[in-house]
Amino acid sequence: MAGRRPSRQDINRRRGQAGFVGRRSELAVFRETLVRDPEETDFPFLFHVHGNGGVGKSTLLRQWETAARERPSVVTALVDDEVHDPLEAMEALSARLGQQGCPLKKFDKQLSLYRQRRHQADSAQPVTPAGTGESGAGEEGAAPASTSGTVMAQLGLVGLGAVPVVGAFAGAVDPQQVAQGVDRVRSMLNARLRSHEDVQLVMRPVEMLTPVFLEDLGDVAERCERVVLFFDVYERTGPVLDDWLREITFGEVLGSLPVNVQIVLAGRSRPHPRSWGDWLGAVTEVALDVFTEEEARTLLAARGVVDESSIELILRLSGRLPLLVDMLAQSDTRTGDGLDDVSETAVERFLKWESNEQRREAALACALPSYLDEDIYRAVVPPETSEDYAWLRALAFVSRQDGRCRYHDVVRTAMLRLRRTQSPARWEEQHLRLAETFRARRQSAEVALGSDEFAHWDDASWREHRLNETYHRLCVQPARALPDALAQTIRAVDHDITTLHRWAQLLTRAGRDADHPPLTAWGERLTAVTEASEARGAAESAEGDTAPVAALTLLLGAAELTTPTRALAHAVRARENRLAGSYAEALADYAVARRLDPELKRVHEGRGETLRLLGRNEEALVEFDRAIEFDPQNVWAIASRAETYQGMGRHEEALADFTRVVELDPRNVWVLLRRGLSCRSLGRYEEALTDFTSALELDPSSASALAFRGDTHQAAGRYDDALTDLTRAVELDPEYEWPLAMRGEIHRLMGRYDEASTDFGRALELDPEDDWVLTSRGEVHQSLGRYEDALADFTRALEFDPNYAWAAASRGQTHTSMGRYEDASADYTRAVELRPGTAWFWAGRAEARLLLGDGPAALEDCRRALDIDPEDGELHLLHALATRSTGDDEATARFEQARSALTAVSDGAWADRGKARRAAGFLVVLHCATAEWDSAAERLDAFLDAEPPFEQLRDLVEMIDLVARVAPETRAGTVPLRERVRENLISRT
């Protein structure tokens, strides 16, 4: 049975409780949207309410929220200037929706993960996955900024604080200028964090979390008629939310906004053209001004003010400002007493009209905290009014939300001034009482959080208690409380850039409220220096002059800092300089910090990390040893020492340290991955696979763990298992270039050239300047006989890194296949100069020199190659051919050495079919060189029956041609064999 409809009395009661008179047209505009179809093309889904302070923007927003909630199946969420960036906005909206039974569970989980990972992101050297270098990852050296780095520069690094920005997407930063620094930071994070996904989360928190937020919001919207998101006090939050809101509303990068979601903004200014641009036409603007005289008179009549003289005086005193009209209208006007005293402010008149002296005192006292809940109310008001919290919440200038309330700024500012000037003793006593209240809350939180200071700062509630405690102490004794406040500001910088902004605002607000210009100046200077640094961008300013560095430099000029605090400031600035790549400045700061406070543990860790990044590994080890002496269970220092050993190739020592960290922190996925990489580097593949599998059990969504395990399977010759893991890694993160490229490499090694070319192409779309991928794709082109395409890729790779030996040698091999022997010799010469310890570079040049007719030089190159790899049968065959070209009688013996080595591989267990098949092909060449034509034909039959890949057929043709050139007497016998191989080559193309 349908529920009973409300009575007229119910409606009247609601109206009385709302206390809202006027603005009927504005309320009607919004109500009308609630009955419209949101799928209409002209549906007003984005409102912007604007007007001067006190015109009733917040009141109108709350009336709109009430109107929305009156409808069935409508949920709303309202946030104000409590949020300071898009992450906090999403977090607050999620909390509001959760209170209405619509939690954003996936977002909340991912946000929690982000906060955990960010503090693991201090710094580290780039991860160079196993299988890189000459066999896959390219040469070391400074490379230009990648396209992916540019994208991250555009999207911003607010959470990390490495490239601080004003908006959500770093609009003030020149992406091209900061991209190289972004790539450096990304490399550091790759080493410190647990997985590639974690790196992306810390580097691009807004970009990574917004899609999850919108996905969850979409689930809520599917279950509801309408979702309305309100953003109040937007004049303060707009600078950091504009770009993000525009992107989720009109952009297509971060996800889709459900069609039945409405967004309402309210601030003093109109929408900013820079942020909203061409979309301004889609914004429904609602401009609020002071009441018309008719609206003001209507409100006064509703409040029972009917005396014309009182009405005229209220209109004159209030200027028809809605806030003050409503405040005066709710005062006792029966006698008109005091209305003719125009020397008093409207707030003072209101307090005079309150007949209860204790309530007047409570109203003034409750202006002191920035927000109120019932406990804070009781802590500050007279005992006689301790049960009157409901009365306070009902006052016209008090807004209510989530069990808290706060005064309107217009009223609070006036009341603070009145309390400070009229009763300094009560001002001090009440602020001290509030400071103790927040101190008790902070200490209670610390009991639950433990003794870790970083955990304290990571907790939003703890930070809020600490901030409010500091504010109230500053209001009482600004000069005395300033040293501790500055110390807290340094710790705020240590936490992140958003926390720094809050502490700067704290100093400014406390200075103004306490009328203490030096304190105000501190807040304003901190705000100015950080905003200036953010606006010009880190890359434009002096090296390392990021917002945190600029703020710390300013703070270090304060005479009020204690010696330990000054040491901490230098240590934090050193960390920021290190993250910005300013290593000399970082070391200088660490030196000062150590001199000021030899017991500051983070100095040894941070200095060791800086030295490691500079390649001064032995000095870095000394610092890490000292840090571990201070604290034998310092996981960070032990892991960093392990990384240093790993970077030095001392993998056994690295394994010992990584194992120690695993014992201390068995669920540390990052350490398991790093230990696995050391095992892989030592050829201990099964142990590496165990570590990567353990990491996946802890984090099944880790694309990095899958990629590393896939690479290890590849190194062990398990191509199918490798492809399975790498494909899963690509599915988990389609933007992760490395597993795409590795999968392409495995396809290439398996002769699946089309699949390899596709994977390499996709990887190059993600990073067009990856020289290893370019060279790998060049190898594919070469294997397919597309020599011009191969040359183009090799040449482009060498443009990005002229010292890339693998690309130079590969281009030399292509020139050999094209008959350009002089060019081939030049390329191989460059390769052996860069990497003289690589045997096949010498062999490649030896072949080119043989083809040029320079036997003695070729013979010397063969000797150098065999010094490096004396067991290689192909090198022995080339050595024998070079010996024959010089007429040396030793050629016969060397052909027998080659026969023995090649036969061992060709006729073995065929554990590696590719190597065995290649060895069989080179035995064909050997039989041609020794005129064993029947054996050559039999070997060729077996070789062709094994369906060799294109590149092995091509190499066989080239080697048969080399035999004919070195030993012309064999030409007649080689021609039919060569033609059979060429026919197979043609069929493959």
Could you give me the name of the CATH homologous superfamily of the domain at 43-113 and 208-287? Answer: P-loop containing nucleotide triphosphate hydrolases
**Highest CATH level, the class of the domain at 43-113 and 208-287:** Alpha Beta
Strand content: under 5%
Strand arrangement across the biggest beta sheet? 2-3-4-1-5
Distance between the termini: 78 Å
- Figure out the total of helices: 50
Coarse morphology:
elongated
From the alpha carbons, calculate the radius of gyration and give it in angstroms. Answer: 37 Å
Predict the CATH topology of the domain at 43-113 and 208-287.
Rossmann fold
Provide a brief overview of the structure:
This protein has 989 residues and is mainly alpha-helical. Helices cover 67% and strands 4% of the residues. A five-stranded parallel β-sheet has the order 2-3-4-1-5, sandwiched between helices. A two-stranded antiparallel ribbon has the order 6-7.
Record keyword descriptors for this entry:
Rossmann fold; 4% strand; elongated; 5-stranded parallel beta sheet; mainly alpha; two-stranded antiparallel ribbon; Serine Threonine Protein Phosphatase 5, Tetratricopeptide repeat; 989 residues
Break the fold down into its secondary structure elements and pairings.
Layout (H helix, E strand, L loop, with lengths): L7 H11 L5 H11 L11 E5 L6 H13 L4 E6 L6 H14 L5 H14 L28 H9 L19 H18 L3 H8 L1 H19 L2 E6 L2 H17 L10 E7 L5 H4 L7 E4 L5 H10 L5 H11 L3 H8 L16 H8 L3 H9 L8 H7 L8 H5 L4 E4 L2 E4 L1 H14 L1 H26 L3 H6 L1 H17 L1 H18 L1 H17 L3 H20 L10 H9 L7 H17 L3 H14 L4 H13 L3 H14 L4 H13 L3 H14 L4 H13 L3 H14 L4 H13 L3 H14 L4 H13 L3 H14 L4 H13 L3 H14 L4 H13 L3 H14 L4 H13 L3 H14 L4 H13 L5 H16 L6 H17 L3 H13 L4 H17 L4 H18 L1
Parallel strand pairs: 1-4, 1-5, 2-3, 3-4
Antiparallel strand pairs: 6-7
Helix pairs in contact: 2-3, 4-9, 5-9, 6-7, 7-8, 8-9, 13-14, 19-20, 20-22, 22-23, 22-24, 23-24, 23-26, 23-27, 24-25, 25-26, 26-27, 27-28, 27-29, 28-29, 29-30, 29-31, 30-31, 31-32, 32-33, 33-34, 33-35, 34-35, 35-36, 35-37, 36-37, 37-38, 37-39, 38-39, 39-40, 39-41, 40-41, 41-42, 41-43, 42-43, ...
